[in-house]
Amino acid sequence: MTTAQTAVTIAVLALGTLITRALPFICFPEGKKIPPIIEYLANTLPCAAMAFLVVYCFKDTKLLSYPYGLPKIIAAAFVVVVHLWKKNTLFSIFGGTAVYMVLLRIF
Description:
By secondary structure, the chain is mainly alpha-helical. It has two domains: about 1-30; about 35-105, no CATH class. It is about 80% helix and about 0% strand. It has four helices and no strands. It has helices spanning about 5-25, 35-60, 70-85, 90-105. The longest helix is centred in the N-terminal third of the chain and has 25 residues, at about 5-25. It is extended. The termini are far apart.
């Protein structure tokens, strides 16, 4: 890419980011009632996204060959237990990632 193409690409990406960040504040200013469908999506999508990520993480797990998915299963169990215990999403995700990386070296 030329310098001009790079500059245009950065400008377009910056504009797109600005629009996506500002659009909710423009569409739903303070004091205006949020439509019920938006409230439903706000309550539903975080859980759906997490479920999608769990399915994505386990999709290529081979349960019939060594290590039988044990690193993933143990790390996922760790995440669930730590999250139920501490109620801290970042701690449970980072802890689960660390456990998974250690288990990959062990198995």
